[in-house]
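Q: I'm writing a short explainer about GTP cyclohydrolase 1 type 2 homolog for a general audience and would like to include a description of its predicted shape. Could you first generate the structure from this sequence?
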Amino acid sequence: MIIQDIIKEIEAFAPLNYAEDFDNVGLLVGDKNAEATGALITLDTLEATVDEAISNNCNLIVSFHPIIFSGLKKITGKNYVERVVLKAIKNDIAIYAIHTALDNQHKGVNDMICEKIGLVNRQILIPRKQSIKKLLTYVPIKDAEKVREALFEAGGGSIGNYDHCSFNVKGEGSFKGNESSNPVIGERGTIHYGEETQIGITFPAHLEGKILNAMFLAHPYEEVAYEIYTLENTNQHLGMGMIGELKESQDEKTFLKSVKSTFKAGCVRHSALLEKPIKKVAVLGGSGSFAIENAKSAGADVYITADLKYHDFYKAENSIILADIGHYESEQFTKNLLYSFLTKKFSNFALILAETNSNPIKYI
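A: Of course. Here's the predicted structure. Afterward I'll give you a sentence or two in plain language.
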C-alpha cells in the first residue's frame, strides 16, 4: 500500500474542496507514491511528533492542524516549523493535514464535541452555501435508466436522508451531425428528431468530476449535451459548528463544570451566568468567535468554543452564555476520530495514535 491509498480514504471522508479558503490542507511534505510503513495520527505535528513517528516506524503523519500554514521562504531550522519540516524530510516522513475540511464534515470535529457532551437532535450551526450542484442532461428514452443508475452510483441524487433522487421530463430533441460526426442515431448531414428524457439530479460539488465521468461512460451519444448549475441551497450536512440539545436540562454551573471535566480544561472562561437552565447547546471547535451571532440566532443557551477575546464576551448581551474551554481542549478528540475512521478502513495496517501532548498552554 502506498501513502496515496490512505490519503484517498481520508479525502473521501472529508473532501479538501470544503476546507476554508485561508487553510493549507492536503499532503504538505513527502511523496504520495512512497510505500506506507505506518501512520501516526495526531492533532499537531511537532518535533516530538516526528520523533514518535520515527520510533514507531511510521513514514506518514496524519495531522489535524497543518504545520505549514503560511509560505516558507527559507528552511534553515530557525523556528519550530522549519525544524519539523527538516526532520520529516531527513527521515522520509510524509505529513498530511486535514484541518477545516474535517471541521466542515457532518461527522467531523464538532460532531465529536457534541458526542462528548451528550447532545441529541444535532444540526449544522452554519450550513455551507454553494456546495450543491445540479446536472441536466438529455438522453434517448431507452437509455435513460442506464444513465440515471450510473449517476446514482457515482453519488448523484442524494438529498439528506434520501438517495436515487431525480426529476425526469420527456420531450423531443433534435440534432444534425456534420461530415466528421458519427451519430449513434440518425445519419450525418440530416436533421434527426427523437424522443428524449431530460434527467435532472443534484450532487455535492466535490463529486463533479466523478459525476461527469459516469455520465460520459453511460451516455450513448458521441456529443453529450448537459448543463451544470451551482445552487444557492445551503447544505444541511456540511458546514461549521453544530447545535443540539441535552437530553435533560441542566443548571448552568453544573453544566459548565461537567464540560470542564469532560474536556480536562485548565479553566472555562465564560460570560455572565443568566440564572436559567441549559438545554440548547452550540459548539465550534477551535477559534469560534465568528459564530457568536449564529449561536445566538439559533437560540442556544450556551456556546462552547475557544480563543474568545476580551471584547467577544460582551457580545453575549445577556442572551447567551459564551464559554471558552481552550483551543486544544476543544479539538483534542479529533485524532481519536481520525484513528477510529482509518482503523476501520485499514484493519491490517500499522496505525498509531500519537501520545505526544501538543497543547502549548499550561495552567497553574
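A: For your explainer, you could say: The chain has a mean pLDDT of 96.
Q: Perfect, that's easy to follow.
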